[in-house]
TrEMBL record, chain A:
Protein name according to UniProt: ABC transporter ATP-binding protein
PANTHER family (UniProt xref): CARBOHYDRATE TRANSPORT ATP-BINDING PROTEIN MG119-RELATED, GUANOSINE IMPORT ATP-BINDING PROTEIN NUPO
Gene3D superfamilies xref list: P-loop containing nucleotide triphosphate hydrolases
GO MF: ATP binding
CDD domains: ABC_Carb_Monos_I, ABC_Carb_Monos_II
Top-level division of the source organism's lineage: Bacteria
InterPro entries: AAA+_ATPase, ABC_carbohydrate_import_ATPase, ABC_transporter-like_ATP-bd, ABC_transporter-like_CS, P-loop_NTPase
Organism: Azospirillum isscasi
Keyword vocabulary terms for this entry: ATP-binding, Nucleotide-binding
UniProtKB/TrEMBL annotation, chain B:
Domain of life the protein comes from: Bacteria
Keywords: Cell membrane, Membrane, Transmembrane, Transmembrane helix
Chief place where the protein resides: membrane
UniProt xrefs under InterPro entries: ABC_transp_permease
Protein name stated in the entry: ABC transporter permease
Membrane protein topology class: Multi-pass membrane protein
Source species: Azospirillum isscasi
Record's keyword annotation contains Mitochondrion: no
Residues annotated as transmembrane: 64-86, 93-115, 162-180, 211-234, 290-311
Taxonomic path: Bacteria, Pseudomonadati, Pseudomonadota, Alphaproteobacteria, Rhodospirillales
UniProt key word Cell membrane: yes
Subcellular locations according to the entry: Cell membrane
Record-linked Pfam families: BPD_transp_2
From TrEMBL, chain C:
PANTHER family: ABC TRANSPORTER, PERMEASE PROTEIN, GUANOSINE ABC TRANSPORTER PERMEASE PROTEIN NUPP
Record has Transport as a keyword: no
Record localization: Cell membrane
Chief localisation class: membrane
Keywords assigned by UniProt, alphabetized: Cell membrane, Membrane, Transmembrane, Transmembrane helix
The protein, known as: ABC transporter permease
Membrane topology according to the record: Multi-pass membrane protein
Membrane-spanning segments: 27-53, 73-95, 107-125, 131-148, 160-180, 211-239, 269-289, 295-312, 319-337, 349-368
Pfam family membership, one: BPD_transp_2
Length: 514, 328, 389
């Protein structure tokens, strides 16, 4: 897209600042998006990229700074103002009313009158046109909650376009999509660019930046560290800018020396709360002294698989053997409590909602799952000083800061919270450790620490099953990689043969790639 | 046969009279709860309405001013609920409880101080009560051959001389159905009770919508209270609502938060009341005399069974009871 | 009003309670703010008194004098306090499990039935036996009456707030039926049982202290006051010093984490409700065995609802609950006396104050929070690092 210096940028922010309490989430953020381009905003988790875009959309108020649309300052105090200025946004978590139909969702807030009938007819015609022009087909009369994720995302785009958005912001749009669905989305976005729309895409995936965008803004710790033309940069440069130093893409480790099987599962089936089968006949083996990684787009059953193996969900079928002993037909032992007693550790995917009780003191969190351990329990009362000492020792060993066992877990940073969980699980010396998303939302220093710990545990001859949606993490840590799609394992790869394209195709369910 | 027909008519009539305040209160809560604001303070708002309607009607002799006062008082309390739960994101159940207890104390306190009749208002004369609407043609209808003897009593007992608020309630039910299915306000209300973030990002104010819903609730509970003291009754007496606010809440849940089933639940609960008066001490075949208390508790037991999923399933608005806080 | 909603709501109440040091001193959270809220409630109550044409200061002064001004009054005040401690603890333990138990009224009512049945049955037995049996049976009846809604919440997903409200009404109907048709004293017109054998009455405090040669004026205050204080201590130890309490608190704050930790949410929900109901049921010991000495209609008189206010004011902690119960005891006793002195004031004025306290201490608890916290932050020189994720 040619860019003339006379045309003012479609969207510009000048010195925007935002504090969350004492946290300076945006620090003098200035960026400019030329009209008719696709602009990427990259950064690590917590770099402030979603914050700045929420401010542009009027969802959050800025503390200072200015927003300009087509060179004119606009006062964006609410999403209403943003919509009026022609800014639309597709949030990471879709803002849809599930029981409503697609049509009702699009209409909400743009009804065009006190009654609905006329607006509905108008919207129906307009949406048909948009669908034709941009390949945004969805069934207008289905409840949104019944639609697949990809279609829900198209509803969000339709919502923005129906309101006349000229600037479309997308926050991590591909997080829930397969690479193939993501490609479909990219085609839509390019079509929108052809029509002169301006697109801003927030992501932490460099592949998407390189493939899709014209320009890119890199953010780190709430600040803009670079504004670049995509054609003039590289993934390596972007990665370095994002984290602020050379990234260690490989974890130093010796080849694995697998021993006897610790976990053997066959024909595992798991249903979710709604009774839908999410794991459909999975079989896998994890041996002592190896890390087995499960790759897959999130939502393909890996979370349910991990929770089932940890005893948090009932099995709907299949067998699980731990050190050769069959457990699936012994429901009394196949519980979270029973498995823990048998030497299974579990670092859950979501530390805040599952792995910790954020309102509890750190020392109380340090015994979550082990609250019945005789080491902390008298006949009736708990031994609080034993608790304190244990937690203080773990804090030393894992460099958890601040080093205060009485501080509520909520007051620790993400990386330190994760270390509290990791310390608790690893220090019980489990034979099998189930690990989900160990570094999600964790700063780079803690990532390296956590990775080294996991490899060290493997080298002590423990079995580790790792679930992660970060392909880099899977490839760096795993001795064997299993790929999961739609509740099934669709293939196994060694870390060397697992390049990104191959993994991507397998994660999309194209089995012959194996 | 003719006697049984008349009894049925009288029962139906009694049911309608008892059901009217229930319908008003249950539909009041429908607006609030569908917008995501749980309201267990119906009882208090109704009681305030009943007291202020009677107090003003008694002082001015004008029942319409009384109705206005009832609505004003009830809306005032609804705004207190809104201030606590919407503006300050307080606990909705606690706030509703506070309103109930506050009014349970305030109404008799004020009645005691102002009227000196032991916490009651003076008995209202006929013209200070809300009127019944007399319709023409009772005799003419009864004179029609064949249909007359059937329709005549129906018309006479049920339709003629119904209170003006009964008619208003009928209107309300139809209007509510229309609002929820056909209007912009209804669409937004339903949305804000399911996913307030979607409403927020669509450029609408969650706070404003919820306040609007809460005010509608206040208006309707005020009318319900006025019905008790100036239409059905002739003055305010202590604890006049006697749990009707909670019963209305039960009816709303029994009606699965939808207008028509809620209306049905109100009629069902009201009919147990009408039937119970008739059944007092009358032995029934097989079971014998049913203690009146067992009939009285029937609505509550039914609601518990429904909530437990033993008779159908009630799914509440998803965002109900949760204050809206923006995500970071 | 999904289950999570209830959990979230109740959790919220607990979450702002103890043990969460922010950047302002702890006492601001659990002393200054509740006092400010209380003050706001009292100011509004004063306005109501002004509206009915009396001098608020004079009324409130008289109220306090009549509640604590002389020994007999103190006895009455502590008698009211006893019931409020029981129901306050009952509401609090449910809160700690993420549950809102509005059914304290019905559970106390049923507890009274349990205590009363003991009183009727144990004619001729020594009072300590009757007292123990009454504690056991009133607790059991209350526990069962609360555990059913707990079970329905845990296993069937019924919203506990609604179910416990319904159970209040069902309890009222059942008790009316029992007193009118079954337990009524033969030949009596009013629905109540015969009086128990005086030998099984729970001794009043003046009688009990008399054994040790201490003379205090007669009042309804009885030995269940000591049991209420003991329950406070047990409550603290159970909740914060045993693993069973740990498990209940885990379920209350984070149900998914509880499942992760191998803690059964449904078991703990039912357990917490049973304990809650038992605590509310003990009201029956105070009222029926200690004061009325027969079962009668509506003896609970709103004690279950006041329990909500007590738990909220007391921040769900036993020390706070004792103080809040004392406050409401003062209101109940003083308010009753004021109505004798002032012709325009009646007993219901107390409910006005109770309602306002619930409003300000509960629903509007954050009303002054931002301003007060800002004040303290400024005084301590700017915001401190939070270090949140």
């Amino acid at each position: 897209m040619p860019e003339s210096p006379q045309t003012p940028p479609a969207l510009e922010t000048r010195n925007v600042n935002k504090w969350f309490g004492a946290n300076h989430a945006n620090r003098d953020v200035s960026l400019a998006v030329p009209k008719g381009t696709i602009h990427g905003v990259v950064g690590e988790n917590g770099a402030g990229k979603s914050t700045i875009m929420s401010i542009v959309y009027g969802y959050l108020p800025a503390d200072s700074g200015a927003i300009l649309v087509d060179g004119r300052p606009v006062a964006v105090r609410s999403p209403r103002d943003a919509l009026a200025a022609g800014i639309g946004m597709v949030h990471q978590h879709f803002m849809l009313v599930d029981p409503f139909t697609v049509l009702e969702n699009v209409l909400l807030g743009a009804e065009g009158g006190v009654t609905l009938a006329a607006g509905m007819a108008r919207a129906r015609a307009e949406l048909a046109r948009l669908a034709r022009d941009y390949g945004l087909e969805v069934d207008l009369d289905r409840p949104v909650g019944d639609l697949p994720v990809g279609a829900q995302q198209r509803v969000e785009i339709l919502k923005a376009l129906y309101r006349g958005a000229e600037i479309l912001i997308l926050d991590e749009p591909t997080g829930v999509l397969t690479p193939q669905e993501a490609d479909h989305l990219f085609r839509i976005l390019r079509a929108l660019r052809e029509q002169g729309k301006t697109i801003v895409i927030i992501t932490h995936k460099l592949r998407e930046i390189m493939e899709l965008t014209d320009n890119v803004t890199v953010m780190r710790r709430g600040q803009v560290v670079a504004n670049l033309a995509t054609a003039g940069t590289s993934r390596e440069e972007l990665a370095e800018l994002m984290v602020g130093r050379k990234v260690l893409l490989r974890v130093e480790k010796a080849p694995a020396r697998p021993g006897a099987p610790v976990l053997e599962a066959a024909g595992l089936c798991v249903r979710d709360g709604a009774g839908v089968e999410r794991v459909k006949g999975v079989g896998l083996t994890v041996r002592a002294g190896e890390i087995v990684g499960i790759a897959g787009v999130s939502g393909n059953g890996q979370s349910e698989l991990l929770e089932a193996l940890a005893g948090m969900r009932p099995l709907a079928g299949g067998s699980v053997r731990l050190r050769g002993e069959e457990l699936a037909d012994r429901p009394a032992r196949f519980t979270a409590r029973g498995l823990r007693a048998l030497g299974v550790g579990h670092v859950p995917e979501d530390r805040q909602r599952v792995g910790l009780v954020t309102g509890f003191e750190a020392q109380e969190c340090a015994i979550l799952g082990h609250q019945g351990d005789p080491a902390f329990n008298g006949r009736f009362l708990m031994d609080r000083s034993a608790l304190f000492d244990r937690c203080a020792a773990e804090m030393d060993a894992y460099d958890i800061r601040p080093r205060d066992p009485r501080l509520p877990a909520a007051n620790f940073s993400g990386g330190n919270q994760q270390k509290i969980v990791l310390a608790r699980e690893i220090e019980r010396n489990p034979d099998l450790l189930l690990v989900g998303q160990p570094t999600r939302g964790v700063d780079i220093g803690a990532i390296e620490f956590i990775h080294r710990r996991l490899v060290a545990l493997r080298d002590q001859g423990k079995a580790i099953l790792l679930v992660s949606v970060e392909l880099d993490e899977i490839r760096a840590l795993s001795d064997r990689i299993l790929v999961m799609f739609d509740g099934r394992l669709v293939g196994e790869l060694g870390p060397e043969e697992a390049d990104e394209r191959r993994l991507g195709l397998m994660m999309a369910g194209v089995v012959d790639a194996a | 046969m003719e006697h049984a027909f008349l009894v049925a008519l009288l029962l139906t009539d009694a049911t309608v009279r008892v059901a009217t305040p229930l319908v008003l209160a249950a539909f009041a809560a429908l607006y609030s709860e569908r917008a995501g604001v749980v309201d267990i303070g119906l009882e208090g708002k109704m009681l305030a309405g009943a007291f202020f309607a009677a107090a003003v009607a008694s002082s001015t002799g004008n029942p319409w001013l009384g109705l206005l006062a009832a609505v004003a008082a009830s809306v005032g309390l609804a705004l207190v609920h809104g201030f606590a739960c919407i503006t300050h994101k307080g606990n909705q159940v606690v706030s509703g409880m506070a309103v109930n207890i506050l009014v349970a104390g305030l109404a008799p306190t004020l009645a005691y101080a102002w009227f000196r009749q032991g916490g009651q208002t003076p008995l209202l004369p006929g013209e200070a009560r809300l009127p019944q609407i007399h319709l023409p043609g009772v005799e003419a209808l009864a004179g029609i051959p064949v249909l007359g003897p059937v329709l005549g009593p129906v018309y006479r007992e049920l339709i003629d001389d119904a209170n003006v608020l009964v008619w208003l309630t009928v209107l309300l039910v139809v209007a509510t159905h229309w609002v929820f299915t056909r209007s912009r306000f209804g669409l937004r209300l339903r949305a804000v009770g399911e996913n307030p973030a979607a409403v927020d990002t669509a450029g609408l104010s969650v706070t404003r919508l919820r306040y609007q819903a809460v005010v509608v609730t206040g208006v309707l509970t005020g009318i319900a209270g006025a019905y008790l003291s100036t239409a059905h009754g002739a003055g305010f007496v202590r604890d006049m609502t006697a749990g009707k606010g909670y019963l209305a809440l039960a009816a709303l849940i029994f009606g699965k938060w939808r207008p028509w089933p809620t209306l049905f639940a109100c009629l069902l609960f009201a009919s147990t009341d009408a039937v119970q008066v008739r059944l007092q001490g009358v032995p029934l075949p097989v079971v014998g005399v049913i203690p009146v208390q067992f009939i009285q508790m029937l609505p509550y037991v039914l609601t518990v069974l429904l909530l437990a999923g033993f008779v159908g399933r009630a799914v509440a608005p998803r965002a109900g009871g949760i204050p809206y806080v923006k995500e970071r | 009003m999904a289950q999570e909603a209830a959990q979230g709501v109740a959790q919220d109440v607990v979450g702002r309670g103890f043990g969460r040091p922010g950047d302002v001193p702890g006492w601001v959270g659990y002393a200054l703010l509740p006092l400010l809220n209380l003050l706001a409630a009292l100011v509004l109550s004063g306005l109501v008194i002004l509206v009915i044409g009396e001098n608020p200061l004079a009324v409130l002064t008289l109220l306090v004098t009549e509640a604590v001004g002389y020994p007999e009054a103190v006895g009455y005040t502590l008698y009211y306090t006893t019931g409020y401690i029981f129901t306050g603890l009952a509401v609090a333990i449910a809160f700690h499990c993420g549950l809102f138990n509005i059914g304290g009224e019905g559970q106390a009512y049923l507890g009274g039935l349990g205590a009363g049945l003991v009183g009727l049955a144990l004619t001729g037995w020594p009072w300590p036996v009757a007292a123990l049996a009454a504690v056991a049976l009133s607790g059991l009846f209350g526990a069962v009456w609360a555990a059913i809604p707990g079970w329905l919440q845990a296993k069937r997903g019924s919203h506990i707030v609604i179910t416990t409200i319904m159970f209040n009404f069902i309890a009222a109907s059942v008790m009316t039926y029992l007193l009118v048709d079954v337990l009524i004293r033969p030949g009596s017109q009013s629905p109540e049982t015969r009086e128990f054998d005086p030998g099984v009455w729970l001794p009043t405090m003046d009688r009990a202290l008399g054994w040790f040669g201490v003379a205090i004026p007669a009042s309804p205050l009885n030995l269940s006051f000591l049991w209420a204080l003991a329950c406070c201590a047990l409550f603290y130890l159970f909740l914060w010093r045993t693993r069973w309490g740990y498990e209940i608190r885990t379920v209350g704050r984070n149900e998914r984490a509880a499942v992760y930790a191998g803690i059964s949410p449904s078991r703990n929900i039912i357990l917490a409700m049973a304990i809650s109901g038992a605590l509310a049921g003990f009201v029956g010991v105070n009222e029926i065995m200690g004061v009325q000495h027969r079962i009668l209609l509506n003896f609970t008189g709103g004690v279950g609802f006041v329990g909500i206010a007590v738990a909220l004011m007391g921040r769900n902690h036993p020390v706070g609950i004792v103080l809040a119960a004392l406050l409401f005891g003062v209101l109940a006793q003083g308010g009753g006396q004021v109505s004798f002195e002032y012709p325009t004031v009646n007993r219901e004025l107390v409910m006005v104050i109770q309602g306002l306290v619930i409003l300000f201490a509960g629903a509007l608890e954050n009303l002054f929070k931002p301003q007060v916290e800002a004040l303290f932050r400024r005084r301590r020189g700017g915001p401190q690092a939070e270090g949140r994720a």
